[in-house]
Design a protein that fits this description.
324 residues, mainly alpha, 3-stranded parallel β-sheet, 3 strands, elongated, binds tryptophan
Length: 324
């Protein structure tokens, strides 16, 4: 039992770490698959949450062709804040502002054989999905860097597992930017309306009086995910299967529900956009906090690996490095 528990104090919260690759603006599929869970974990107050913006991981694929990495990070972080990730509750930090992570990663690369890194199935999937000719050493090391991220803040809980997947507006199994079938979290109301009104529904249904299929019909998948009015959804489904409602009404109601869901997100995004510098302040603050942990971890790792030689020289150099 820890000292704090003996003294009757509240037991320390478990530390949670999760990472996000900032590849630009996010869409409803990212919300359903990732953000919703992150928010739930943050707001449960059960964990001390660290949310990592993994910009180095973004560089592992398509670095040469990325045009504006800085802007992509900014847009991604804006969405993350807009959905309700709260810097007062969670530590939101940028990987590349923590140089210690690179050092810990380097030490970790000594512990993993090259063949083991090459055997990781997700790596093979990535190479196939992104149609890469070969993997850079950076991509090969993706999981090693991820392990360094986790140990860096001494994370105890890392959410994993299959999250729900939202279909694309064109009926594809997955919403994805590369397929051009997204509704973005930052789309305005009119854009959402246009996208929804031209959505794919039930291809077997030719007229409104034909009985339609609800299961796997993206319009209803979205209703289930975003329309809080369960009675309305139930009524629409039951009329749809009986051929007593047209696609237009189903879609119009979806537009209303989606815009009601997105409005507070748009408003928060606009607030952050109105205060230039705020986003950098948030990242500076969170990254400073994370870096305190990182320094401590790296020190422990060096000691554990027997690398604490020339510690006086190291201290002197560290001190010089921090003098302006
Ligand atoms: N690989 C994760 C993604 O693709 C991002 C990530 C980076 C991460 N470091 C991590 C996730 C550490 C969990 C823990 O989104």
């Amino acid at each position: 039992m820890s000292t704090s528990q003996k003294n009757g104090a509240v037991p320390r919260k478990k530390r949670l770490l999760t990472g996000l690759r900032p590849t630009g603006k996010f869409h409803l599929g990212n919300y359903v698959g990732t953000f919703e869970k992150d928010l739930e974990l943050q707001n449960s107050s059960e964990y001390e949450c660290f949310f990592l913006i993994a910009d180095y991981h973004t560089l592992t694929t398509g670095y040469e062709t990325a045009r504006s990495i800085g802007d992509d990070i900014r847009e991604g972080v804006l969405d993350f804040l807009a959905v309700g990730i709260d810097p007062a509750k969670s530590t939101l930090y940028l990987q590349s502002l923590i140089p210690e992570v690179s050092e810990l990663f380097l030490l970790f690369t000594m512990l993993v054989s090259a063949t083991r890194a090459q055997r990781i199935p997700t790596l093979k999937e990535q190479i196939r999905d992104l149609k890469l000719d070969s993997a850079s050493l950076g991509l090969l090391n993706y999981p090693v860097l991820q392990a360094a991220d986790i140990l860096m803040v001494r994370g105890e809980v890392v959410p994993v597992g299959k999250f729900p997947v939202l279909p694309g507006t064109g009926g594809e199994p997955k919403m994805s930017k590369s397929l051009g079938n997204t509704i973005m979290l930052s789309d305005d109301a009119e854009t959402v309306r246009k996208k929804v009104m031209s959505m794919y529904t039930d291809p077997t249904r030719l007229r409104a009086s034909d009985p339609g299929h609800v299961k796997g019909n993206p319009v209803f998948v979205y209703h289930d995910a975003f329309n809080p009015n369960l009675d309305e959804v139930h009524d629409l489904k039951s009329r749809y299967t009986k051929g007593r409602v047209g696609d237009v009404e189903v879609k119009q109601k979806l537009v209303v529900a989606l815009n009601a869901f997105l409005d507070p997100i748009r408003q928060r995004r606009a607030e952050f956009e109105r205060q230039p510098g705020l986003l950098e302040d948030i990242l500076a603050d969170g990254s400073s906090r994370a870096r305190v942990e990182a320094r401590d971890t790296l020190q422990q790792a060096r000691e554990a690996m027997g690398l604490n030689y020339f510690s006086r020289a190291r201290k002197t150099v560290d001190a010089m490095g921090s003098t302006p």
